[in-house]
Design goal:
With 492 residues, the chain is of the alpha+beta class. Helix content is 22%, strand content 34%. It binds adenosine-5'-triphosphate. InterPro entries: ATP-NAD_kinase_N, Diacylglycerol_kinase_cat_dom, Lipid_Phosphate_FormReg, NAD/diacylglycerol_kinase_sf, YegS/DAGK_C.
Length: 492
């Protein structure tokens, strides 16, 4: 709530109503504020704070969600919110039946003009993160959706790739958006499911919302942090209810005729090894990442390989000039390993003539290669501080050589994004990228892991759990970026 500087000049309506048994003037301003006197002047901003309204007899109840430090005592508590947001209610009685009808019509008309979602499909992963999604939904999300009169169908994901199956089949006409109460993994599955549809062009425009309930909540952290809000379910829900949208770049990762789509990150080397191999220490909780990072730095691995990329304007100084080789996209001869289903319909990646672009290349060995689409990789790792949701580029964070002590300090600076300032780190934006991963320098019989959005994309020979099947093989793969292809619900 805010105290307006001057009395509102233009009204949608201004009327005498009863608030808390006291007759007072309530004004609905043309710029969407409800202003009234109750001990002092009070104000609710409809677009920002009002979730919806309900009627009860001759009473109109306005339901709002207000920042705790802005909440005043004039609004009756309507239940607890999450974090620093509180639910509030303004209950008032117009003095005549005609005035009651007019208030309802004007409020409904204004709320309808805001383009907020009316019906959502909610996918909830009961096993994500600390298995808190069902509780988060019941306590923090559902009450706000009910206050806002947003209808929803709730579906729990029952197994890996279930969210992708749902997104492939969902009746788009039934919903205004899909919301994931999960970590980033379910969001990535939804994006892949939508893009595999025959009607992918319209499907991928369906807005996607995120409520943090996983181990990695990088996407929703990036969204909320961009407007200075905490990464909490209540703020994430409010962003969805208010219906603001922003577009999001989608990266296509291809290897011969196989494709997979990513919206968050791809890692090879140190970060991938920490992310994937630390699952051995799951019993430690979130401390497993720090513990295993320390182990990996003490026993540092370097990988042979080469990266080639098309730099964004201003980043052309990195690497050596190269030309695109048609061989990069050519089919590989040995098809001994498991293949993923080839996507023959649906989105096939951006229409870019790669051979016409200016390529650069850097040869290994490498300690770490990390590609990031949004700033935050998790709630505590600001992987790519300059990353933008829809600039059409993906941020590349590459480390070739770095002393162990410096690496340790780089890792500790990652919570604020300070690592990219180090002279050991190459930090640039790329439009297209080719990774040619090789073996470890200390042991050529052992190769590495390629991690995409927290899941293993490829495991090389002798890598951790190398007997397990993966989506792609540990060899050359290509990444291209499609600007703003997907749409997210966003706080602004
Ligand atoms: N019922 C289920 N049982 C097992 N796995 C599931 C289930 N539902 C979804 N999954 C899988 O769990 C994976 C991770 O889910 P999610 O995105 O919620 O969390 P995360 O933060 O990415 O990872 P974590 O599992 O470490 O919390 C997804 O790839 C999804 O396929």
């Amino acid at each position: 709530m805010e105290l307006p500087d001057s009395p509102p000049a233009v009204h949608i309506m201004s009327d005498w109503v009863r608030v808390n048994c006291i007759v007072t003037q309530l004004t609905f301003t043309a710029d969407g504020k409800l202003v009234w006197m109750e001990a002092s002047q009070r104000c609710l901003r409809i677009e920002k704070e009002v979730l919806g309204f309900a009627t009860e007899g001759s009473c109109i109840r306005i339901r709002a969600a207000v920042d705790f430090d802005e909440a005043g005592c004039c609004l009756r508590p309507g239940g607890g919110g999450g974090g620093c947001m509180v639910r509030r209610e303004l209950a008032f009685e117009p003095l005549s039946a005609d005035s009651f009808t007019l208030w309802c019509q004007n409020l409904r008309g204004y709320l309808d003009s805001l383009g907020r979602p009316k019906k959502l499909l909610i996918l909830l992963n009961p096993f994500g993160g600390k298995r808190s999604a069902p509780k988060v939904f019941e306590k923090e999300v559902k009450p706000l959706l009910e206050d806002a009169a947003v209808k929803f169908d709730l579906q729990e994901t029952g197994y890996q790739l279930h969210a992708k199956e749902i997104a492939r089949k969902v009746d788009l006409a039934k919903y205004d958006g899909i919301v994931c109460v999960s970590g980033d993994g379910v969001l990535v599955e939804v994006v892949n499911g939508l893009l595999e549809r025959d009607d992918w062009k319209s499907a991928i425009k369906l807005p996607l919302g995120m409520i943090p309930a996983g181990t990695g909540n990088g996407m929703v952290k990036s969204l909320l942090d961009s407007v200075g809000q905490p990464c909490k379910a209540s703020y994430a829900t409010l962003a969805i209810i208010r219906g603001h949208k922003r577009s999001l770049d989608v990266a296509t990762i291809s290897q011969e005729d196989k494709k997979i789509f990513s919206v968050l990150m791809l890692a090879w080397g140190l970060i991938a090894d920490i992310d994937i191999e630390s699952e051995k220490y799951r019993w430690m909780g979130s401390a497993r990442i720090d513990f295993y990072a320390l182990q990996r730095i003490l026993h540092l691995r370097r990988y042979e390989g080469r990266i080639s990329f098309v730099p964004a304007p201003g980043y052309e100084r990195h690497g050596q000039p190269a030309s695109y080789s048609a061989e990069w996209a050519a089919p590989y001869q040995d098809h001994g390993e498991k293949q993923v289903d080839v996507i023959s319909s649906g989105y096939q990646g951006p229409n870019i003539k790669l051979e016409e672009l200016s390529w650069r290349t850097i040869d290994g060995p490498f300690i770490s290669i990390w590609l990031h689409n949004v700033p935050w990789g998790s709630e505590s790792a600001m992987a790519a501080p300059n990353a933008k949701f829809s600039d059409g580029y993906i941020d590349l964070i590459a480390i070739r050589d770095c002393p162990r002590v410096s690496l340790l300090s780089l890792i500790t600076e990652m919570d604020k994004g300070g690592h990219v300032k180090s002279h050991h780190v190459k930090y640039l934006k790329v439009k297209a990228f080719v990774l040619e991963p090789g073996a470890r320098t200390d042991n050529p019989t052992k190769e590495g892991i390629i991690d995409i959005d927290g899941e293993v994309l490829a495991r090389g020979k002798g890598a951790y759990k190398s007997e397990q099947e993966t989506l792609m093989a540990y060899r050359r793969l290509q990444i291209t970026v499609d600007r703003g292809l997907a749409t997210l619900y966003s706080p602004q």
